[in-house]
C-alpha cells in the first residue's frame, strides 16, 4: 500500500504568489497555481477550497509574518507607542518583495467586500488604540498613517523612490513616532 501524499500549503501559497508576481492578480486561478506548484487542481482545491480562500490564506500568512517582525523589533516595548515605532521600523526594513505582496493584497482586497471589511476593522481598531494611548497620540497616528501611505505609494509604483529616499522618509517618520509616547497608563 502506497504512502498518502501530503501537500505543503505554504508551497501552494508560494506558487500562488509566483503566479501573481509574474502574471498579475487576474491570472490567479486554481489551474494556474496547480501548474506553478506542480500539483493537481484537486490538490489546490483540497488545500483551500476556492480562489478566495487561497487569497485569504496568503493575506493571513503575510500578516502573521509581519506581526512577527513587528513583535521582534527592539522598539516594541509592549506599549502602543512602542508598537507603532516597531511597525514603522519593520516597514522601513521591508524590501520590494513586501511591496509586491502589499500590491497583491490590496488588489485582492479591492475584489472582495469581506476582505475589505476585515482590513477596515483592523485599521479602525489600530487607530482607536493609538487615539487612546495618551497625550502624544497625534504624533503616533501621523507616524502610523505616514508609514502606511508611503508603503502603499511605493508598492503600487505611484512614486519613484530609491532606497536612499525611502530611508530618509522613514527617518522622518521614526522621528515623528519618537515624539509620541504614552503618558499615564
UniProtKB/TrEMBL annotation:
<dbReference type="Pfam" id="PF00440">
    <property type="entry name" value="TetR_N"/>
</dbReference>
<protein>
    <submittedName>
        <fullName>TetR family transcriptional regulator</fullName>
    </submittedName>
</protein>
<keyword id="KW-0238">DNA-binding</keyword>
<feature type="domain" description="HTH tetR-type">
    <location>
        <begin position="6"/>
        <end position="66"/>
    </location>
</feature>
<dbReference type="InterPro" id="IPR001647">
    <property type="entry name" value="HTH_TetR"/>
</dbReference>
<dbReference type="InterPro" id="IPR009057">
    <property type="entry name" value="Homeodomain-like_sf"/>
</dbReference>
<dbReference type="InterPro" id="IPR041479">
    <property type="entry name" value="TetR_CgmR_C"/>
</dbReference>
<keyword id="KW-0804">Transcription</keyword>
<dbReference type="GO" id="GO:0003677">
    <property type="term" value="F:DNA binding"/>
</dbReference>
<keyword id="KW-0805">Transcription regulation</keyword>
<dbReference type="Pfam" id="PF17937">
    <property type="entry name" value="TetR_C_28"/>
</dbReference>
<feature type="DNA-binding region" description="H-T-H motif">
    <location>
        <begin position="29"/>
        <end position="48"/>
    </location>
</feature>
